[in-house]
Amino acid sequence: MADEVDVVVIGLGPGGEDAAGRLADAGLAVAAVESRLVGGECPYYACVPTKMMVRASDLLADGRRVPGMAGDATVRPDWSPVAARIRDDATDDWDDKVAADRLTGKGVTLVRGRGRITGSHEVTVGDRTLRARRGILINIGSEPVVPPIDGLAGTPYWTNREAVRATAAPGSLIIVGGGFVGAELAQVFARFGSRVTILEAGDRLLARDEPESSQMIAQVFEKDGIKVRTQARVDAVRHENDAFTLHLDGEHLTGDRLLVATGRRSDLKSLGVAAAGLDEDARGIEVDGRMRAAPGVWAIGDVTGKGQFTHVSMYQSAVAVRDILGQDGPSAEYRAVPRVTFTDPEIGAVGLTEAQAREAGLTVRTGFAPLSAAARGWIHKVGNEGFVKLVEDGERGVLVGATTAGPTGGEVLGALAVAVHAQVPTATLRGMIYAYPTFHRAIEAALADLEG
Ligand SMILES: Cc1cc2nc3c(=O)[nH]c(=O)nc-3n(C[C@H](O)[C@H](O)[C@H](O)COP(=O)(O)OP(=O)(O)OC[C@H]3O[C@@H](n4cnc5c(N)ncnc54)[C@H](O)[C@@H]3O)c2cc1C
Ligand SMILES: NC(=O)c1ccc[n+]([C@@H]2O[C@H](COP(=O)([O-])OP(=O)(O)OC[C@H]3O[C@@H](n4cnc5c(N)ncnc54)[C@H](O)[C@@H]3O)[C@@H](O)[C@H]2O)c1
């Protein structure tokens, strides 16, 4: 006999965990199905542990910046406190008891195992069938993509999941993929002493960002001793005698560890979405402004393709919960999705890049200001790489995108995320007072550049 509830949540990433709790708080009977860890990728394998790594590598970098600025310092990297902090503070040794108890404490029925949609309003987990009176909320997230490179599958390569469990910084590390994961982890391990090489198939690092961001990070990485090869095509991978050998472009490259960071995808087939009337061969699940994917089916998080970020998953959770509870509220809006690459310097970005704005047919005007030319950048001196770039819809006189790169680029982004979200006229932004001497004062200089 089937267990009857109001809502079945499949997958407990940040959004699914949040939604299950909120729906239970609202008095609904909720079953939440999770095959791995309650909380999903972010707390155990992604955002939190990698940002602990970043924090540690930033400390090393600042220590190395002391000479010539503040005296002498000798920096001797040691990975063990980083590994211990990730194991003990961030992940409880990859044990989700605290999160699971928190959820069941709200009255949610936690069902461990892989959920499969087996009919309208029906989910099967092992030999258990769950019937959802109101519907199913899908939050299955995404899995690392592993490219079909000859020999790779049989080797002990890392994805982010193994990288965060590292107990030592490898002597040498080859990273395939120069996007978010590749860039953040390349710098972390390089600053802990690993010889790092990035192999990127495209023609630049961080290809989703402005070309100026790619150019800046390439220069920073060169100073960090990171080797970058773009337009790299790995033909084969071998693992012998504890070392990886990669064959590419007629050469070979060896390394102690290999990190595959080539993007992520969602497995719709094994979820059985066809039983809910959805296309199982699609890249993701299409949702409307209320997160509805089909009658009685909602989806949130990476699987929706609206930005693979925890804040998007959480934002969509609130929208889906409102709709499931029959409450009114604004529909989802993605005009101002913020994103931060936590390299040093950080690269904050929101909305459209210049190229995307042009592709959208807008009359684009841009403004650019390097941080080094701003008083705070000059004061900061070593480590002051960065800039502010603004993308304006010239016809409407509002910003549609912005990039803030610099020592606190992710924080400076806040101001411009508000501007893009609220469509604040650039004339109004120009009339503001920007505190002296802050990094965000470079916004004023970029606005002046935009005016020409
Ligand atoms: C290395 C790395 C660093 C990142 N850093 C950041 C960052 O700094 N900031 C940021 O905003 N984002 C970051 N991200 C992205 C972020 O981790 C994800 O966007 C975020 O986890 C949201 O994903 P989600 O809610 O879609 O689900 P996920 O976190 O992917 O969780 C989905 C859950 O569903 C479960 N599941 C899947 N299928 C089934 C099934 N059939 N039955 C039962 N359970 C199932 C999985 O086990 C998993 O626990 C990072 C990602 C990576 C890889
Ligand atoms: N700070 C953050 O918010 C943060 C940090 C890490 C990850 N994330 C999220 O996780 C997602 C996944 O990150 P990611 O870095 O894996 O993906 P990504 O899409 O950012 O980058 C993948 C890169 O791999 C390259 N690539 C693909 N196949 C290749 C091949 N065979 N050889 C060489 N290069 C190849 C691509 O050209 C691309 O540049 C991101 O989309 C992001 O949303 C966010």
Output the radius of gyration: 23 Å
How much strand content do the residues show? 25-35%
Query: Mean pLDDT, as a whole number?
Result: 97
Q: Number of helical runs?
A: 15
* Uncertain residue segments: none
What's the main sheet like? 8 strands, mixed
> What's the CATH architecture name of the largest domain?
3-Layer(bba) Sandwich
Under CATH at level 1, the class of the largest domain stands as Alpha Beta
First-to-last CA distance: 71 Å
Number of strands: 22
In one word, what is the shape?
globular
Topology:
Layout: E1 3-10, H1 14-25, E2 30-34, H2 41-45, H3 47-64, H4 80-90, H5 97-105, E3 109-112, E4 115-119, E5 122-125, E6 128-138, E7 143-144, H6 160-163, E8 172-176, H7 180-191, E9 195-199, H8 211-223, E10 227-229, E11 234-240, E12 243-248, E13 251-255, E14 257-260, E15 264-265, H9 268-271, E16 292-294, E17 297-299, H10 310-324, E18 338-341, E19 346-351, H11 354-359, E20 364-370, H12 375-380, E21 387-393, E22 398-406, H13 409-422, H14 426-430, H15 442-451
Parallel strand pairs: 1-2, 1-6, 2-3, 6-17, 8-9, 8-14, 9-10
Antiparallel strand pairs: 4-5, 5-6, 7-15, 11-12, 12-13, 16-17, 18-19, 19-22, 20-21, 21-22
The site of nicotinamide-adenine-dinucleotide has 26 residues, from helix 7 and strand 18.
Cofactor: FAD
Keywords: FAD, Flavoprotein
Domain FAD/NAD(P)-binding: 6-316
